[in-house]
Amino acid sequence: MIEYSHLTGDSQFDSLVTEGIVHQIGDYNAFMPPNQTKTLGNDDQSFWGLVAMTAAEVGRKDPANFTWLEAAKNVFDSQVVRWDNETCDGGLRWQIFSFNRGYEYKNSLSNGNFFLLAARLASFTGNKTYAEWAERSYQWSVDIGLVDEKNYSVYDGSMTETNCSSINKIQWSAAHGIYTEATAFMANFVSTRASIASRATLTILDWR
Predict the structure, then answer these.
(1) Looking at domain 2-201, does it have CATH number 1.50.10.20?
(2) What local confidence, expressed as pLDDT, does residue 27 receive?
(3) What pLDDT does 199 receive?
């Protein structure tokens, strides 16, 4: 609906859409409403962060108590500290809280959303730290086997109990689309900053 309004100029639903988004903002302005604690996954939270990112990108008027960009950054900041090096050499777990079913699973949707959010923040702000995290999350997905660079498949996830030694190879178009979009943002980020000296720090991947 944000994109619809931006592309068509039809703003009749803008206030309703903003109201719906703000209702989900929760504590810390990071889309973690307490009433969703029992079911809140990293992918759920990051979808709202990506919504806020879209609002920032199209110049949607900010709510009263926070900016869209701040909300997107808050989601990134809350997720980056959950990056789990203790199992599978990195990655985000599906669920945020250990008492929820799925906490033992690291899935492509959560990690792909994190990759996409970092890539879009890098593109929007020019901050290389976001780009470095985008590269790290993508490279982890490749190294662990969630993304197959030979045939461009994106698989569902893996269990931390096996240290991600076996991949669930169910494929979802949503996950593939997320990784594709994030890769496009990173390609754009690199190409538009190729002449900047700080580009030398982004050496892990050639996004072209």
Answers:
(1) yes
(2) 84
(3) 45
